[in-house]
Design a protein that fits this description.
alpha+beta; Alpha-Beta Plaits; eight-stranded antiparallel beta barrel; 10 helices; 8 strands; globular
């Protein structure tokens, strides 16, 4: 199972996400699997690393794969580019080989699909009093305001990063049941999990100050997922649906001890790499 690294970065001005991606894409030892712009934290973690995760203004999300599996380097971002980074949060995760091999094709198909019609759940929810934001993953006033603001400039696909920390001993099983029920509920809104992986536990007391930092392995994220939605409205339509809230309450809430959910919009890697910055 290939080990990839997930990075949240704040860049040192005047470095832009586009210029950083362009430089990184030229390096033969690193493959960029996902590059996206963080837009809004939908769920703030309560236990694990709320500071810095929810308190830092991130500029860039990267999922990187080393092209040389035998490399002993723990960070695929080389020193010259490290100097352009102000803050970094890093997680290592094992991604199934079959999932990784199929990712480029699946990603293109998902992004090329026409947006499905909304189910009407969002319209009904907007006519009622919205609930406050929480780890319950509900349609909150803050999320509605973000949806309206993002739609002014971006009405295309969004990519959700999920960091998951399970209740033990049965949380992972409960989340698996949630995942199975999630497929048809999200699918009719165009939602699809593109990447799912198991987080590699850091050694107790090991790690650097900018990520994977000195935390006992049992107090760390267990799983990551990267999920596609045709638009932020489709994501919100799902949250507003009774079908989704049913599986959320039955399976998801009992499964999770903590979670971080970040809405991002992906960069066109080919376009950024070929542009003259």
């Amino acid at each position: 199972m290939p080990a990839l690294t997930l990075h949240l970065l704040t860049l040192t001005p005047p470095t832009t996400p586009e210029s950083f991606i362009a430089q990184l894409s030229k390096l033969p030892e690193t493959k960029i699997v996902v590059a996206s712009r963080p837009r809004q934290t939908v769920i703030h973690p309560n236990i694990l690393d709320a500071n810095p995760l929810a308190s830092t203004n991130w500029d860039l999300l990267l999922l990187l794969q080393p092209t040389n599996p035998a490399s002993t380097s723990t960070n695929p971002i080389p020193p010259p580019l490290q100097s352009l980074i102000k803050s970094e949060y890093k997680i290592t995760a094992g991604i199934p080989s079959k999932l990784l091999a199929a990712y480029p094709t699946k990603d293109k198909i998902l992004k090329a699909k026409p947006q499905p019609a909304l189910t009407g759940s969002l319209s009904k929810a907007l006519s009622k009093e919205s609930k406050s934001t929480s780890q319950n993953l509900e349609l909150s006033p803050q999320l509605i305001a973000f949806m309206d603001e993002l739609c002014k400039t971006h009405n295309g696909p969004v990519t959700m990063l999920n960091l998951l920390h399970f209740n033990h001993p049965n949380g992972k099983k409960s989340y698996f049941n949630y995942g199975q029920a999630f497929i048809p509920v999200a699918g009719k809104r165009g939602g699809d999990a593109k990447i799912v992986g198991n987080v590699v536990r850091p050694a107790d007391g090991a790690g650097d100050s900018r990520g994977e930092n000195g935390r006992p392995s049992e107090e760390w994220w267990n799983e990551i997922s990267i999920v596609h939605y045709p638009s932020i409205r489709h994501f919100c339509d799902m949250l507003a649906g009774e079908d989704y809230q049913g599986i959320n309450e039955e399976h998801r809430l009992s499964a999770l001890r903590d979670t971080f959910l970040l809405c991002t919009t992906e960069f066109d890697l080919e376009g950024v790499a070929s542009s003259k910055l």
